[in-house]
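Check out one such.
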Amino acid sequence: MRKLTLTVTFLSVLVVGAVHYSFAKEKFNDGDRSWSRDKVKRYIRRAFAGRSEKEIKKIIAVFDAESGLKCSKISKSNDIGVAQINKIHWKRFGGKDRLKSCKHNIDSAKIIYKEWGNSLKAWTSYNNGKYKNYL
């Protein structure tokens, strides 16, 4: 029985390790403008690593409410990308076209998040509570 338990434990470690390793090796190219929803979520998790699971789920919900997690989404008010970066930020983050990159948009959102005291108060869907429909 002990040998079977050790074998199962060893195999479990191998499988979990392989999944973690493949996630760590995933490429998030800066020029990509059409990631799947799952890939967007994985990159948000990576970009906001160190935040609590509850906070990461809230961040994903806010961005989902803002853009449907679409990298090239442009709103009626000209907010761009997954995080719907407002035009007042375009210049400092490399311009409108640069912000259509999934990776760059999320990385820029993280900077805004930090500038607002690690808060989502810069996003309308957080302030009006719309994000709660996406949790």
The chain has one domain: 29-134.
